[in-house]
What does this fold into?
Amino acid sequence: MLKIGAGEVNATPVLGKEIPGYFNVRNATGVLSDLYAKAIVIDDGKTVAAIAALDSLGGSFEMVKRARKLASEKTGIPEENILVHFTHSHTAAPVDLELYGTKADAECTEFSCMKIADAVSIAFNNRKEALIGSARTYEDGISFNRRFYMKNGTVKMNPPFASPDIVKNEGPKDTAVEVLRIDSAETGEPIAVVTNFSCHLDCVGGKEYCGDYPSEMAKVIKRELGADVVSLFLNGCCGDINHLDFTKPKYIKPGHWRKMGRILAYDVLSAREKAEAVTIDSFEASYKYMKIDRRDVTSDELDWAKKKLADKDTTHMDATYANDIIGLCGKAREPHNIPMQCIKIGGTAIVSVPGEVFTQIGLDIKSISPLEHTMTVELGNGNIGYVASELAHKNRLEAPSFEMTTTAYETRISSYVDAVPETAKLFVDTAKSLLS
It folds into this structure.
């Protein structure tokens, strides 16, 4: 019988740290909800593995390796058996990736790594014989694809609300809510609930730390199941998904993150109750490195950058991208070398992919999975920027000019976004190999 433990620690840093996620500087002035590092540890007597999640916009593979090393030193779990996920909260602390002008913060990075290790250590020490149940429900009303074909022939991200120029969405969304129920075999009491849903954690804004909608979801789950129950949220492939329906007039009110959290919490609680918790004797963990080539700057992109930097009226965003493009020219860049990880527990597979990954890629991975339940987890073990679908890259490449591609920055080349279009297929092929 599997032994599973769960743990969580407060990972909220001091105020004044820069909050990454936008193109403007935001230094933290308060706390709307605490940030956490959470983990579960799985042990079948032969193999031990951990799944950890940090409330963070995302960190590098180097940061993941540091967190794994610290966690392994505390527990003896092999470093390669520790999956580290970043929830992608846009109201969390800075770590080691510089993004849209936000500077890396070595102090916060080390602090966060220690908190991840602490959460894994607590989970390891809490191991007990456990029953496992898998379930799936669907939530169709709180997440939306944010990329649209427009009447002028462009693909635009986050267009004006209810714009008459919207034609249709470029891609799909994933409405599945996958739930893993973990209960004590001895008492039947809940130990943890693992949830996988695909939507950006960007419902809050402002200058206060917040774990976004999963923090409200955890609050409700604890109220219903017990204060010691760990609600581990694993964000799905949501690079092109957020909480805004741009086909309608603007309707979002302050505190929307709480509303989303409550809706998801009751979806999860209902699914959990329907899942049959059973004995499972073993699990599987697999791991494979991927070599991901980087895009080169084209002549059109370079011409655009020079033009923008020569224009005194250029926006801050365009100037940021233009400087990035100039900086990439002639710069030797090694391919990304980063792993995909798969952990199979009973009828559920957890597949991690590095980066902000478009939903279509996650759906493609699910479609080739032999298991009944598959969780696709973006920002797993690092962040290589946006990884767009083949369709999104096709639309970028077929645009009459680079200028027409700048309305959607997920495919726009920069120091953050440079994975080649073939990365989408590489992810699906690698997942197929790990799942087989």
